[in-house]
UniProtKB/TrEMBL annotation:
Domain Fe-S metabolism associated: 16-138
Protein's name according to its UniProt entry: SufE family protein
Protein family according to the UniProt entry: Belongs to the SufE family.
Source organism superkingdom: Bacteria
UniProt source species: Lacisediminihabitans profunda
PANTHER family, A to Z: SUFE-LIKE PROTEIN 2, CHLOROPLASTIC (PTHR43597:SF5), SULFUR ACCEPTOR PROTEIN CSDE (PTHR43597)
Amino acid sequence: MTERDLPDSLIQIQDDFLELDQRDRLVLLLEFANELPELPPRYAEHPDLFERVEECQSPVYIFVEVDDDRIVHLFATAPKEAPTTRGFASILAQGLSGLTVEQVLDVPDDFPNTIGLTEAVSPLRIRGMTAMLGRTKRQIREKIAA
């Protein structure tokens, strides 16, 4: 999959960031942070299902659900005091949820490097988002193998 072969949801997110200058990209990242979807009630009281992404500086947890039609649903939590981490989690939750297993697994591992934030945030934070994507893919592989 080439960069432009991304699913439409990720192309839209990528384009939204790349159309902006660096300062405005950070503003958009904060908007994503504020839009991190709330957990559905069935998961809100089951933090034991979520996996911590240790590479992130802030505590972020993810959980992947694959339904009978092989559609992916990504859920994430991150503290409001960690807007960068929340923003990254939100980008992935919004960009990957609703895609097929195959579409998500085909997303390039370096997708976080392609949205124009590598100069705006630290490499450590980009590695955190890359780790979130990697864990998402691993959870999907485990669920479809079961």
